[in-house]
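User: Just a sanity check before I run the rest of the batch. Below are the C-alpha cells for the first item. I only need the designed sequence back.
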C-alpha cells in the first residue's frame, strides 16, 4: 500500500474560507499499489482539486511512502484527536 500526503501552504488563508483554514491544507490518501496512485493522478476529482487549490497555494509538498496493510487497518479504526 502507498500513503500519499500533500501539504499546501496557502498564499492567503483568508482567500480559502471553504477550507476553514488559517494555515496549511493537508490531504492524506492511501492507495493499494503504484498503479492505483497513477490512476488517481488523472482522476476528475484530483484534477478538480488541483484547479481549486493551485491558484490559492504558495507552495506544495508531496510525500509518497509504502505502508503495510496492518498500518492502514490500524489507522482506519484509530479515534480522531
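Assistant: Here's the designed sequence for the first item:
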Amino acid at each position: 500500500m502507498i500513503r500519499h500526503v500533500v501539504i499546501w501552504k496557502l498564499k492567503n488563508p483568508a482567500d480559502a474560507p471553504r477550507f476553514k483554514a488559517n494555515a496549511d491544507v493537508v490531504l492524506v490518501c492511501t492507495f493499494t499499489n503504484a498503479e492505483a496512485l497513477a490512476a488517481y493522478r488523472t482522476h476528475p476529482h484530483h484534477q478538480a482539486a488541483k484547479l481549486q487549490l493551485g491558484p490559492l497555494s504558495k507552495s506544495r509538498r508531496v510525500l509518497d511512502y509504502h505502508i503495510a496493510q496492518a498500518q492502514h487497518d490500524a489507522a482506519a479504526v484509530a479515534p480522531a484527536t
